[in-house]
Design brief:
The structure holds two protein chains of two kinds.
Chain A: H1 7-32, H2 36-43, H3 46-79, H4 85-92, H5 94-97, H6 100-110, H7 114-122, H8 130-154, H9 159-166, H10 171-182, H11 184-199, H12 203-208, H13 219-228, H14 232-255
Chain B: E1 2-11, E2 14-23, E3 28-32, H1 39-47, E4 54-59, E5 62-63, E6 74-77, H2 89-99, H3 104-118, H4 133-145, E7 151-155, H5 163-180, E8 183-188, H6 191-197, E9 200-205, E10 208-212
Parallel strand pairs in B: 3-8, 3-9, 6-7, 7-8
Antiparallel strand pairs in B: 1-2, 1-4, 4-5, 9-10
Helix pairs in contact in B: 2-3, 2-4, 3-4
The chains are: A mainly alpha, B alpha/beta.
């Protein structure tokens, strides 16, 4: 049987196809710019290895912290009705809509105030330290994780939780035993989004944690530092590594069947 | 026995007012009403999932208005079964006993006994995703009955089933209620379900509940 495609769907497919082609062309061009030898040479540099190690550690810590925040906040937004809820939702989106550089500046200024100095004096120093890298990543990554968890809980019926309560659970126990196991894919997606988002974070880290080699340098900082000294091969090598990480995370989330 | 005493509840423009009625001990009561008339809200007030604006709720002569849902001694079967999606049928049915920290062999024995009674013994290791609508409702019924509640609350449990399954499950519901001697409150908008199951029939209209004559069962 001959398949007939209407001009309407065909034109939509052409638009989507052109955009995809543009994305793939960008990645292929970047990959083609370097050779495996140069890639291995760049990735062998001590500074870059430190930056890879620091990125992996900070992104993982950020992803876990983001999840700790996103699960209760996402649940609250999905299940509870309270006055001013729309304003709270809008406020939680601030890190998503504000320019990242501005977020970094806000963090920097916060830690110059009495409140910020009190926090630093009672916990750890954030400004221009690795803790600052995590905090800068967390500020933005957590907002994306909250969105993902809210979306997850929105799509899970509250009925099983109600039934669990009639069978003897408190609300908290019902959430723990029934809802959270059902939300595990969403939790994986939320942590992955926070992880991937943190991996690419540059502006807030630069402003708040600085770009000191072997100290607060993460992968996007490396790209910027290498570009600024004209070492394009190293910048491309690190960029390709980040592309691979992003594709792996995206594939893992899609494989789990969650939307991001 | 279930007793609603002057219950009032309001949400937006919708309200229930001075709702008072009593379901006699060990009877099968059916509450009928149009879709959206507040039947489910009333059942949720009885379950403790909603708090009434005023009035009191009694189960077996004990006031339960301020008790948490789990302390009311009820078994609740919602419309879609509301299975626990990550638990097997065995775990779903044994849930209430697990929460009560009963010994594993007691849980296993009760699960097996209920599963055999409800005709789901061959499904015990399946996840709810792999069950049909009728199987889900049977499992939901087993789960609700596991802790031996004095009251069984059924929220349109047959509405999502095809006619043949509906007849089978209606028969099962009535038999189970008789054998276990529980007081059942079943809400529906179906006249045929009401005619087949009700020992006592109530209608919810314009926010008020009134007892109604039993309907003749269709041939």
């Amino acid at each position: 049987m001959k398949l007939r495609v209407s001009p309407f769907w065909l034109s939509l497919a052409v638009v989507a196809g052109l955009y995809l082609l543009f994305l793939v062309a960008m990645l292929v061009a970047t990959a083609g710019y370097t050779t495996p030898g140069k890639l291995i040479e760049a990735l062998g540099k001590r500074e870059i290895q430190h930056s890879i190690f620091l990125s992996l550690i900070t992104c993982t810590v950020t992803a876990l912290l983001s999840l700790l925040l996103a699960v209760p906040v996402g649940y609250l937004l999905a299940r509870a009705r309270f006055p001013g809820k729309h304003w709270v939702e809008a406020a939680l989106d601030i890190p998503i809509v504000l320019p990242p550089m501005v977020m970094g500046l806000c963090l920097l200024i916060l830690f110059q105030t009495g409140f910020g100095k009190f926090i630093e004096s009672t916990t750890v120093t954030f400004t221009y330290t690795v803790y600052g890298v995590v905090l800068a990543q967390f500020t933005i990554g957590a907002a994306f994780a909250v969105r993902t968890m809210r979306h997850t809980f929105d799509h899970l019926s509250s009925r099983p939780e109600d039934v669990a309560m009639t069978l003897g659970c408190t609300r908290a126990r019902a959430v723990w035993l029934v809802t959270l196991p059902a939300a595990r894919r969403g939790m994986f997606a939320a942590a992955s989004v926070a992880w991937a988002r943190s991996l690419g974070e540059f502006g807030p880290i630069l402003v708040f944690a600085g770009a000191t080699r072997m100290k607060t340098e993460v992968l996007p900082t490396t790209v910027w530092l290498e570009l600024s000294v004209g070492n394009l091969e190293a910048a491309v090598a690190v960029s390709l590594l980040m592309v691979v990480c992003a594709i792996v995370v995206l594939a893992a989330v899609k494989w789990m069947g969650e939307e991001v | 026995m279930i007793r609603f005493d002057n219950i009032a509840w309001q949400a937006g423009g919708f309200r229930l007012e001075n709702v008072s009625f009593t379901v006699p001990e060990k009877s099968y009561a059916v509450l009928m009403g149009r879709t959206g008339c507040g039947k489910t809200s009333l059942l949720e007030i009885l379950c403790g999932l909603r708090r009434p604006a005023s009035g009191r709720v009694f189960i077996a002569e004990r006031e339960v208005t301020n008790l948490p849902p789990g302390a009311r001694g009820i078994g609740y079967v919602p419309q879609d079964g509301a299975m626990f999606p990550t638990m097997t049928v065995r775990e779903n049915i044994g849930f209430a006993l697990r929460i009560r920290r009963r010994p594993a062999d007691e849980i296993q024995q009760r699960v097996n006994e209920l599963a055999a009674h409800l005709g789901v013994a061959h499904l015990l290791d399946r996840l709810p995703n792999n069950l049909s609508g009728g199987e889900r409702q049977r499992v939901a019924l087993g789960r609700a009955l596991a802790a031996k509640p004095s009251v069984l609350l059924l929220d349109e449990p047959l509405s999502a089933l095809d006619e043949e399954l509906r007849d089978d499950l209606a028969k099962l519901l009535k038999n189970i209620q008789r054998e276990l001697g529980v007081t059942a409150l079943h809400i529906t908008h179906s006249r045929s379900e009401a005619a087949r199951l009700a020992d006592v029939l109530f209608r919810l209209d314009d926010g008020r509940v009134q007892e109604s004559p039993l309907l003749p069962e269709l041939p």
